[in-house]
Specification:
three-stranded mixed sheet, two-stranded antiparallel sheet, globular, binds zinc ion
């Protein structure tokens, strides 16, 4: 797909668009994905890290310890996380961590298609299945940063076709919709709980 080249995103431009290789592998991975909301995918963080490591090796790149750590933090978070939160967590492990270290690691993970930048809340999240598929459509809770990636290739392609029919080129791999997750909707209904749970991943049931 030549149209998948994101013009406004330097982090992606040096690397072939994910859609190119996804187009080749989409049939092989057309099975149904079962991923719970709040989790990037169904596997354990360890399995996901091993998968990402292998994927980078196949591309002739290296998942260095810092890149791996940032990816691990995002996997453990299970939701969109701001760069400065990642930096804070990094500093708890490596007190000398400087902002550029984290930003460079994020740039690498973005360009490899392993994570998404969520522009509406200026945060980052792990791609729903890391290395396997074309990106889906991201639904982002504007309250807590919960992200669900809808794996709907036909819907995504139809949307992109409509955008191009209108004379536009999509400027980023990410297609995101703003939402309010069920937990935050429930918290909104109970004002006290909303305050207590605004940043905690509490499942209100
Ligand atoms: Zn994705
Ligand atoms: Zn939420």
């Amino acid at each position: 797909m030549k149209n998948a080249k994101p013009a406004a995103n330097a982090a992606h431009s040096a690397i072939p668009a994910k859609a190119d290789r996804a187009a080749a592998s989409v049939d092989a991975h057309a099975h149904a994905h079962a991923h719970a909301p709040g989790h990037a995918h169904g596997e354990s963080p360890e399995a996901a890290l091993a998968l990402a490591e292998e994927y980078c090796r196949e591309r002739g790149e290296k998942l260095t310890p810092i890149r791996r750590k940032v990816l691990e933090l995002l996997l453990n978070s299970g939701r969109a996380t701001k760069a400065y939160s990642l930096l804070d967590e990094m500093r708890q492990i490596h007190p000398g961590s400087a902002p550029p270290t984290v930003y460079r690691a994020l740039d690498f993970l973005l360009s490899a298609g392993l994570v998404h930048r969520i522009e509406s809340i200026n945060a980052f999240t792990v791609c729903h299945d890391l290395t396997q598929c074309q990106h889906g459509i991201l639904v982002v809770c504007q309250q807590c940063g919960n992200v669900t990636e809808l794996h709907q290739p036909k819907l995504r392609q139809a949307l992109i076709a409509q955008i191009e029919d209108a004379g536009y080129r999509v400027a980023s791999d990410e297609i995101e919709l703003k939402g309010l997750c069920s937990a935050c909707q429930a918290a909104e209904a109970v004002p006290v709980a909303a305050k207590a749970g605004a940043t905690a991943p509490v499942a209100a049931k």
